[in-house]
Please model this.
Amino acid sequence: MFLIPSAYLMCRPANFGFNPETFSSNSFQQVSNESTHTISSLAMAEFDAMVSLLLQHEVSLVLVNDTPHPFKPDAVFPNNWFSTHSDGHLIIYPMAARNRRTEVRFDVLEAISDKYTLLKRIDLQHKANENKFLEGTGSLVFDHENKKCFASVSSRTNSNLVEEVCRLLGYKSVIFSSYNAAGKLIYHTNMVLSIGNKFAVVCDDVIVERDY
Model:
């Protein structure tokens, strides 16, 4: 089964930088001495270089631009607010940070729909009103061949929503906890696990309370 996507959507950031609303749950985020303009410019240069490299290798891309307003420092990570699936499902997720919820753009979804067949759109944004959050393929790492979905619980990864998405897609959930050196929950599953066609990368030392 083909696991690696045949095309990738990338969002060119307009205001990449430190996000004070996500700082408390993301232990990897740090305050920089660089100006916000410098950080944003460096991020855009890095983004453009990656796009150029991917195109050189004939990787299919759907490119969109972040809008300057409202201010969205994490817009370069659209995989957190939606995911697409080979059976035609498109899922929109409830984001923990309020300023990240403004990243959801239906014009971006229309750009995808113009190129690819999407049979069913599932919008879970309302779950944020219940303080239940799930942040796309940051929270969910899929093993498509074995129809399993791995999730490390945190303030951004609600176990009940993991189970709900798995029921919708027909996947088995594998839920666990992972902690950093300070004993704090790691906020996203893809910080500790990645699954490809013929390999998997896992930081086993930080994972506890597993059910697999």
